[in-house]
Amino acid sequence: MSRTPERRRTSGGSQIGHEGDRIHPLTHRGDVIGVFTSGGDSQGMNAALRAVCRMGLYLGCKVYFIHEGYQGMVDGGRNITLASWDTVSDVIQRSGTIIGSARSKDFYTKEGRLKAALNLLLCGINNLVCIGGDGSLTGANIFREEWPAMIKELVSRGSITAEKAAKYPNIKIVGLVGSIDNDFCGTDMTIGTDTALHRIVEAIDAVQSTAQSHQRSFVVEVMGRHCGYLALVAGLASEADWTFIPEWPPPADWRDILCQKLQESRLYGQRINIIICAEGAVDSNGSPITAEMVKNVIVERLNYDTRVTVLGHVQRGGNPSAFDRLLGCRMGAEAVMALMDSSPDLEPYVIAIHGGTIVRVPLTRCVERTSQVKKAMADKDWETAVKLRGKTFIRNLETYKLLTKMRPPKDVDTLSGGHKFTFAVMNIGAPACGMNAAVRSFVRNAISHGCRVFAIKDSFDGLIKGDFQDINWHDVTNWTMSGGSFLGTQKSLPTKDIEKVVSQLRKFKIDGLLLIGGFEAFHSCVLMTELRDKYKEFCIPMVTLPCAISNNIPGTSIAVGSDSALNEICGLIDKIKQSAIGSKRRVFIVETMGGYCGYLATLSALASGADNAYIFEQPFDVDDIKRDVQVISRKMKSGVQRYIIMRCEKANANYTTQFIMQLFSEEGKGKFSTRINVLGHSQQGGCPTPFDRNLATRMAAKAAEKLVAEARQSVQAKGSVYTKEPDSAVLLGVGDHGSECIPILQLKDKADFVHRFSKERWWLKLRSLMRILSGHHGFYEPTALTSDASSEMSTDSSSNSK
């Protein structure tokens, strides 16, 4: 192995990882890994199992699957099976866990743990990957601590020899958090949470039509145990009228407030009401609030037709989202690397995600932090409980409180200083899911600060025509769940008629501008900022909010809309794979959008289990294509007899999708057949995913804050706004530590304007992992840094986690 075992320690005791170091194959022959899932199942576990298995095999390890969780470890025998490459073929898109999960009473006993230790020793397992919740991970750590004593006792009983005991004096463990509740401190997201949100939001979207028809109210009960994350984010993503969560109990008179709010919504023409109730919701005294209680209040006081929908275990089912597949792949691969790095004297780690970075966090500190939340809840210390959930939870809660108001707040936030600024918002570029959610959030946040908002129709085409609409609080109701762009969006630049653009901004007295869109939005902001010396109308605060399925914009690791596109692609590939299974010996070449940017092709390949991805950023030639033919021929002889290749639409001007199909057809005569699927504009459609809805909502709220703050600082004596400060024209991006405003001109050199993408592409480091997990030779660049658990509190956003 080419990486060094030394690890630099920081003053806080955390350790810096080896991101970017190369790991070569077969460097850990002789190591044996056992992997199991425990507790409640969650979508994405199979992706993690696949990654653990294949990364372990890539390094030369033996990998055992321990079926039925800790109970299978105790029972042994056929519950512990040797895994092969083909064992995890075609599982990445399946929910649940292929090796079963169970809660074991036997493992709680000393005798049960002794049996488990003996069964592991019989297989030579001295490395464990535990995929489960905090209880499962705590059990694994106790097992690790007791291991030396259990070995001695097994020797004294004659169950194992002294030689065997000497060979396995310790056991190393690493944890992956698989839970739909997202209640584990130390990671922004747990495996399964995003998919559970998909199921919840899909159900609420579906129920809205029947509610609309009959003017009904629906009380939707969601899972989450004593964590309100699912309910809170689902409430934001579905524009729920009210959300009950454990960490933020309603006031004592919540019944009066709820009924007044529902009555007001009907007065404003709203035909439906959605109330979300977390299963662990309580009032300020700690007494449970149930969905049935809420329904009875509405029926008795308002006489509204009200129904209760308990989603139950539907939330644990369905195909995993693209996010959970990617999270499982990345965490599973890093878990193996962490085991190989570990030694008996090192504290065990949990593999977590902070922002978009996979990190290793000390297990015991995470468990302690999670226990502190439970204690705060038990003590009814709600403020501490919310704080311990982290900054992302706090921000979601603040956004929910604002956006669910029926009218603008009477007491205008002091952020505007009493000024009445006039802002404009527009969509620019290709349509992307989340554009409407961003507009809604911006409009309501700006109005809450006492500002007036104009919506500009059809990008710069509409601006030039003077198509400005004075938009108010209620105009944007029910925008969050809709894809596309209600404002209309075009791929246009201000240079189309710069004088007319300036004239219209002057006419409507615009004090600040929000550009929501793709590379054209970024480019437009650059152009207008560069023209500030010539046109004072551009000397106003300007914010660009990246929103593009291609994720090709500099200054941000993730753009609104790219998650929805990835999920659309993965869903289509799942169907294509089914076709291939029936056809046998078939190769599919799937062409994605993205222009020259290979983000969609690469991440959809990793998330769907595709075999390769051809992209512009990594040039390929005919020899590379012919090598794929050789790999295809080998694969068709055994295992799953199909091959999926993703290709970015502008990967190569000469090696087109049609050319590759013709080459494959010629070289594969008698061995396999080849088909093409051009996914086209379906990737821009559909409903926005919960991730995109939530990201758009939070980012637009920050954009409003930025514009108000900059306008207030730049207001002149006569009330007009004038600024040429570099940080008054920014791109609001997502970095490793949350959202950040970057001066737009600083990003100019980081953009390739010819090919319309960013020169910095974090996702390229995932391509080697994609190749390894699909069975290609190569090396892996681990993506994790080791982090202190306390850094979770400083993480502002999980939005870069994709």
Automatic annotation (TrEMBL):
Its main location: cytoplasm. Mg(2+) binds at D134. Transmembrane segments: none annotated. The active site is at D181. Keywords: Allosteric enzyme, ATP-binding, Cytoplasm, Glycolysis, Kinase, Magnesium, Metal-binding, Nucleotide-binding, Transferase. It comes from the Eukaryota. It is found in: Cytoplasm. Pathway: Carbohydrate degradation; glycolysis; D-glyceraldehyde 3-phosphate and glycerone phosphate from D-glucose: step 3/4. GO terms for biological process: canonical glycolysis; fructose 1,6-bisphosphate metabolic process; fructose 6-phosphate metabolic process. Its cofactor is Mg(2+). HAMAP family: Phosphofructokinase_I_E. Catalyzes the phosphorylation of D-fructose 6-phosphate to fructose 1,6-bisphosphate by ATP, the first committing step of glycolysis. This is ATP-dependent 6-phosphofructokinase. The lineage of its organism: Eukaryota, Metazoa, Ecdysozoa, Nematoda, Enoplea.
